[in-house]
Fold this protein.
Amino acid sequence: MDELRNDNGPDLKIDEELASYVEETEKKQHDESVSRERILEYLRIALLICTLLFVVSLFLEIWGSYRISNELARASAVTRRTQRTEPKIKTSNLKRYFPLRIIGYHTKGIKDIIGQDRPKAEAVYEPEDMNLQLRSPIVIYCQVVYFSNLSDAELFIQEKLKDFPKDQQAIVLENYYFNSGYSKDEGAYFLATIHKGLVFWFKTSYIEIIPNEENRLRLLKNHNEKVASEVIKFIGQAEAGVEQIESN
């Protein structure tokens, strides 16, 4: 009997090892199966998130286009109401609409443009920031043009915008709606609005080469909007006949 028990001992040990191996293999396969399921679940979640992001971005793009179109239509409607209700302006001496002095800027010149098909005046300003002007000099050119027909004024702005196709937007400055855009080479920024048949347009541009700076577009936009805001704020004084005193 003792010999029989001794003979069965190794077999029993082998069976236990085999059972342990099978159990370990099954556990390993189960773990791998769980891992695959988790990976597939993560991939499904990632795909869902990507789909949602795409839908949201598409919605925002469509909404942005609709908002700009709506703003332009509203700006046109406001301008038309103003055109119908407000009296005609004096078309002579249009240079009176440009302030002789804007804080932070040097006035290069202001004059009426004689001998043109429409009454016009222009002004040129430069920032007084010498660091900027030595590093990346810019100039702000301004013009006011008179139109007896509002449709012609709107068409004039649309034609101008063709030279500034990048990032076109409708923005608000001093309660006026402006059309805006950058030139293709990103060397200039354009703004335009209408007041009583007068088109005010502004172009800020780099005088020499376009700098390779991260904030080059923001610089153009900021300076253009500052000058445009000051000119628009000055309209009331210009139409009230306030005389400007030239400083030496």
